[in-house]
Each structure stands twice: as C-alpha cells, then as structure tokens.
Design goal:
Distance between the termini: 51 Å
Structural class: mainly alpha
Radius of gyration: 16 Å
Order of helices and strands: HHH
Number of helices: 3
C-alpha cells in the first residue's frame, strides 16, 4: 500500500501547491473533481490483470493508484505548477 499512499500524497501536494499559487481553492476543487471522475470511469471500464509483467505499476490497494499514476501525477504536477503561476503583486 506504500505505492497508493505515495501516489495520493503526490495528488494532495499538487492540489495544495495549486491552491497556494492561485490564492483560491477553485482550481484545486476543479482538478480534484476531474481526478475523481477519471478514476471512477477507469474503475468502470477497466479491470487490472495481475499476472502481467507490468502489473506492479498498479496498486494492490484499489487497482488504480500506484507507481504509474504517481509518475503521471508528478509529470502533470510540474506542468500545472508552471501553468498556475503566482499572482503578480503591484509595487507601490
């Protein structure tokens, strides 16, 4: 379950970083809603096959979060953090 924990921690870190950079919670709420939607759709449309060579990339916890989703979260987190730049403060 360590892979699921690390993956979900990374998702929380990305959402918290987006919240800190934008100054409001709306972007984080939208990203979380999108995350949950993708996860629910993937659960309904796919079924993990445990005897395949790359099945270790999926977590034993729920068959979705794991090392593969962790890598994708880190990659997308870097993109999102660069997209949501901090608000500019005016100098008086």
């Amino acid at each position: 379950m360590a892979d699921a924990f690390i993956c979900l921690f990374a998702v929380g870190f990305v959402l918290a970083t987006i919240r800190a950079r934008t100054g409001n919670i709306a972007a984080g709420v939208g990203l979380h809603a999108g995350w949950v939607w993708v996860m629910l759709i993937a659960h309904e449309l796919t079924k993990p096959v445990r005897d395949q060579p790359l099945s270790f990339l999926l977590s034993q916890f729920d068959g979705f979060v794991g090392w593969l989703v962790f890598a994708w979260t880190v990659l997308m987190g870097i993109v999102l953090v660069r997209f949501f730049y901090p608000p500019q403060t005016s100098r008086a």
